[in-house]
Amino acid sequence: MSPTSLPTHRRIAAVLVLIPTLVALALWAFAWPAARTAPRDVPLGVAGPPAATAPVAHQLEQREGAFDLHRYADEAEARDAIEDREVYGAVVVTPQGPKLLTASAASPAVAQLLQQAVAHQAGAPGQAVPTEDVVPAAASDPRGAVLNTSVLPLALAGIGAGVAVTLLGLRGLVAVGALAGSAALVGAVAATLSHSWLDALPGNWWAVAGTFALATLAVSGAVAGLAALLGRPGLGLGALLMMLIGNPFSGAASAPEMLPEPAGVIGQWLPPGAGGVAPAIGRLLRRRVGGGARTHADVVGGAGTGRGAGGPRRARPYGTRLRRDGTRTGTGSLTPPVRPRTPAAADGGARRDPCGITTRAIHPARQAPRSR
């Protein structure tokens, strides 16, 4: 039955009901996560001897549910955890007092939150907590605005491609080729603007373009797939899911751990969050500099396994996790195993050159390359 065949009063009633409903859904989807943004089990490291870190950990736990604390033996291990995207930052307990390590490339919003929270919870009254940005964001885009704002245009591009393929009657391999070709062109345009013009993303141009293309293809494939299963209603369902759920719930502007539950979890199951721009860049634009230090693209979005696309991964080789009730989980020892100290590392091992790149002395017997 065509909508025009309905009585006039029913068509007017449909407009009066449908439009306010869509507006209410859009406001709820975008305003609710923004209004309820707060830390929820944000991975944070605490480094130092167990006896010295216990008071700091106790102070941080006063904000119930805010932080998921990870223990590390020293500052070097905490830096490695930040660079490997296990945590967003770390509090290092030194003889001079606590020191905060952050990674603004992973999330400028979380880095700012850690500076405020650690200064209030872990620092002594009236004492400023020294802060070091281990993995800073790009100088041309310190707030990560380019990555954050790219989620919506790529979602729109994916929706448009899926709708066009369906309405044009393309099927099978022809439809797949059309979706892949349009995604490749979108990726090339997005990389030209963000990488070549704005200089907001480092790394290889082709890697950036491929990342944008895959993010677009994930959305367009989902929309076209729903249309193939459900017909024309699948187009509307796919567009609503990507625009009103996937986009605001992706956590690209902050982090999935900053969104109210279950928004952060739901967002990571949809393409804008699970394969969105910020986390996808973090996974695919991994490049090493010097002695193993990573660029800001190495951790942006922090899309590791187990934490969702927007946050650090949860892998722990030995450590324990502190529950909010004070108990610990895991089989690792509270005191991490002591690493053998070679003569080359007797002076601390880790050295930082004038460019800020960390290098570590390696024992001659351990010169064989190893994969990370």
TrEMBL record:
<keyword id="KW-1133">Transmembrane helix</keyword>
<keyword id="KW-0472">Membrane</keyword>
<feature type="transmembrane region" description="Helical">
    <location>
        <begin position="173"/>
        <end position="193"/>
    </location>
</feature>
<feature type="region of interest" description="Disordered">
    <location>
        <begin position="296"/>
        <end position="372"/>
    </location>
</feature>
<keyword id="KW-0812">Transmembrane</keyword>
<feature type="compositionally biased region" description="Gly residues">
    <location>
        <begin position="301"/>
        <end position="311"/>
    </location>
</feature>
<feature type="transmembrane region" description="Helical">
    <location>
        <begin position="150"/>
        <end position="168"/>
    </location>
</feature>
<feature type="transmembrane region" description="Helical">
    <location>
        <begin position="12"/>
        <end position="35"/>
    </location>
</feature>
<feature type="transmembrane region" description="Helical">
    <location>
        <begin position="205"/>
        <end position="230"/>
    </location>
</feature>
<protein>
    <recommendedName>
        <fullName>Integral membrane protein</fullName>
    </recommendedName>
</protein>
<feature type="compositionally biased region" description="Low complexity">
    <location>
        <begin position="328"/>
        <end position="346"/>
    </location>
</feature>
